[in-house]
Amino acid sequence: MYVYCRNCGFSQDDFWSDEYNPFNDDYIKEFRNIFKIGMNGKTVEMEICNAEEREMEYTKNERNMAEVDFREYLAWRMDSIALRFRNMKWITWDEFQADTAKECPACGCTDMLSVD
Ligand SMILES: [Zn+2]
Fold first, then answer.
1. Beta strand spans in 1-116 (E)
2. Separation of 71 CA from ligand 1 center, angstroms?
3. How far does residue 13's CA lie from ligand 1's centre (Å)?
4. Where are the beta strands (DSSP E) in 17-103?
5. Which of 2, 26, 51, 93 could pair covalently with 66 via S-S, beta carbons 3.0-4.6 A apart?
6. DSSP three-state, residue 40
7. How far is the centre of ligand 1, averaged over its atoms, from the C-alpha of 101 (Å)?
C-alpha cells in the first residue's frame, strides 16, 4: 500500500512494516549474493539503460544486457534504496493515518492524495 498524488504524480515506496522494509532478509540475501559474485571475480548483469543512466562502464553481453563491476552494481542498489527512503514523507501506514494535515510533499496540494 502506497500513497500517490493525483495532481502532480508524486508517489513514494509502499508503507514500511515488519514484513516490508529495506532491511528485510531478501535485501540482505541479494547484497550477499552480489558480494559473492564479486569475490569470485565476476561481473554483475543489469539493464543497459540503468548502467548508462548511472554512467557506469559496462560490456554488452549476448543477452543485450550490461555486465558491470559488482562494486558499482552494489552501490547502485544501495543508492536506489536510500533514494526511496529519502522520498518517503510517511514511513508507516500509522504515521500517514496520524497526519491530520496531509500535504503532498511535491506540489503542496491537500486534497489529491490517494492510497492504493
Ligand atoms: Zn502533488
1. 3-5, 44-46, 59-60, 66-68, 113-115
2. 35
3. 15
4. 44-46, 59-60, 66-68
5. 51
6. coil
7. 14
Cα angle 86, 88, 92; round to 5:
130
What's the grid cell of residue 45? 548483469
Ligand 1 centroid to Cα of residue 97, in Å, is: 18
Residue 40's CB is within 10 A of a number of other CB atoms, namely 8
Q: What residue type is 66 in one-letter code?
A: A
Residue 81: pLDDT band by 50, 70, 90 thresholds?
A: confident
**pTM for the complete prediction?**
0.72
**Separation of CA 7 and ligand 1 centre (Å):** 5
Q: Which DSSP state fits 98?
A: H
Distance (Å, rounded) from C-alpha 13 to C-alpha 2? 6
Report residue 29 as a C-alpha cell. Answer: 540475501
| DSSP for residue 63 | T
